[in-house]
Predict the 3D structure of the following.
Amino acid sequence: MTTRATRSPRRRTVVALLVVLIVLVAFIVRLVDIQVVNAEEHESDARSLAMEVGSPLYGTRGDITDVNGATLATTSSVYDAKIDPKLAVQGIKRKDDAGATISVSWPELAVEIAAVTGQDAAEVEGIVTTAVAADPESRFAYLERGLSTEQYRALADLHLPFVGFDAHPHRTYPDGAVAGNVIGFVGSDEAPLEGMEALQNSCLQSSDGEIRYMRGLDGVVIPGTEVQDPAPVNGGTLQLTIDRDLQWYMQQLIAEQTQNLGAESGSILVVEVATGKIRAAAEYPSVDLNDIASSDPADRGSRLFRDSYEPGSTFKPVTAATAIEAGGLTPLSTAWSPDRMEFPNGAVVNDSEHHEAQNLTLTGGLVTSSNVALSQFGSQVDPATRLEYLKKFGVGEGTALNWSGEPKGTYIPTDQWDSQTYYTTTFGQAFTVTAPQVASVYQTIANGGVREPLSLVESCTAADGTVTEPELPEPERVIKEDTADQVGLMLENVFAQGTLAEDIAIPGYRMAGKTGTAQKVDPATGAYKDNLYYTSLVGYAPADDPKYVVLTAFDEPKTLRLSAANRPAFQKAMTQVLKHYRIMPSDSQTPLLPVTQ
Amino acid sequence: MSADSTARIESQLGDDFFSSVPGRLPRDGGRERDLRLLAGPAARRRPRMLYGVVAVAGAVLIGAVQMGLSILTTQTSYEIAALTQQEKQLTWQKQILQDDIAGLGSPQYLAANAAALGMVIAESPNYLRLSDGAVLGSSTAAGGASNVDALGRAAVGNSLVAGVPLVTDPAASLETGVSVDELVGADRATPPPIADGLPAPTTH
């Protein structure tokens, strides 16, 4: 209908404006739909259609370093060379020095390849001829796997069109077997299998990414088209508390000593008193991380952290501490001690060596390591309190290491103690602990009664620089400082007056410690093995200002069967620790306490 | 729309409005109003021309700059490609060199080298206290024997350097474990132990 009104120019302007607006709104709606609502779908379409070219970006697994930053584990690359047998067997044509085109046959090429890969020429030739014989259309065979970068480049420089390469990350351990049992290893696919590699995988592991881009006809990447989605993330650097130079020395030492003694295995543990940090955890036999296949599967893990045993005499100081704190005894309290005693409840306790009956002090009980004396001192405290102290010192509680397969230690509840258990618990029998738990007891005594949690990890530094320190339990006061001082002084007297005084002394230094000869149960018979022991020696120095705890242990030494086997190992280990950390000799002498009264 | 409403609008808008609307005759007749000739907007023409020139020049300039940038980026992309290739080569070189030196810094290799030189890891240390010149420790010189035999009984394996000849004794390696202790000689002269601190020179 045409009226005057509809023909009004103003009206037309308004209508035109409305139409324009409607179109504009339609465009905006579509724009939002494309850019916001369905953005992801379109982006992935764009990636798959326009930016077809993509390649994986590998994140690198993090390094493991020692406390001083020396690299103990790092990641490099190895290469798998693959070949196209169908093409290879035809040989190639190439230009000689004069510029003339010549044909080179496959057997001739095989010689060139073998010279690079170190294989036998006939073997290389055989890979292709066998594959072609089996299937003339064969397009794939592995030439050689695990080539080094140098071999890979040399092979690539032969410019053979039928040879291709796949790169793989490869874990390298520059120090080989140094700390091998602690560091652990990964499988060929970088899956963590053992030790810190497995325990701290969350710190070390990387994630792979992908890069996509467009390329021009000449293969050059068009600038601004690269998209990293997702971006690769490198693993973090794991710093251990281990000191690799000290660790090497301890491993060399324990290897020589274990061989000398004809023992099944041996270990040395060095713990810093003030922090509980493990500075060396040496074992023999061990594993060369660069050549794992050459070691016995049983030697690839850590015996030190996985084996538990009845500690024997090394736990006598715990009995002494309990007797002082809960029984009101002093280092000078006495007990009449023959070498064999039958107790009123029927239990019989023997000392390991024959001796005349004597009136031993508590100090003397430790110095002579008398089971009879310790049974008498220990039994002055009720069983529940004794077990409570054992638990406070870590029996049955494990350690803060959380090593995979680490036993917590076992004990018998007091209501199941028989007449023998009632006494044997005073000299380290009828319960089990690990060597780190024993070292932890001595760390507690040396540290004035406060246990610092044992640790092997200093920190984890993520790829973005964030440093994370491990979460450890709070230090715990186990015994009073005064008790710790008294037990410490008695342990000093063990070294100063005991039978091992001469062998173990380090001139100028005051030392404290205790030997232990633990009987081993024969799994076949269930009885203690005859004349085969787990012997250990644990102590700390300097006793006047304790810095480091050293523990040496041998499983079933043969040439020297008792704890005396540990003397040279302990003496050399402690000497090296004192030298390594530049610890000054003591200014004073050990105050001697009476052994008998 | 009815005529009434049209009239209402007209009365509201007044005469002037409708007088200028084409297609309508002024109600009072147009003769009273003289149409005058005004000077044409001749001056406007020049600016329009200038704007045109500026716009075209701008467009040409933008085109030229874009082309220039495009040439530069293309050029740069070739440079990037060349540098990426160079980076790859250098990474390979670095890997090859790293493979070459891997394990040479390991403690067992260093210790074996030192042992081949006749160096020993001695017994307990001695310290000279500067404040009073006192010698702390055992006060004896190190003997000829080492605490551990880092070469003859090398027990801490490392396949990276197992067969690598020692720098200090190319005939020996960690694997072969050839000890040259015998060559160094057992009865080498050891300096006398320090008993009373370092001898001080007499000065005047």
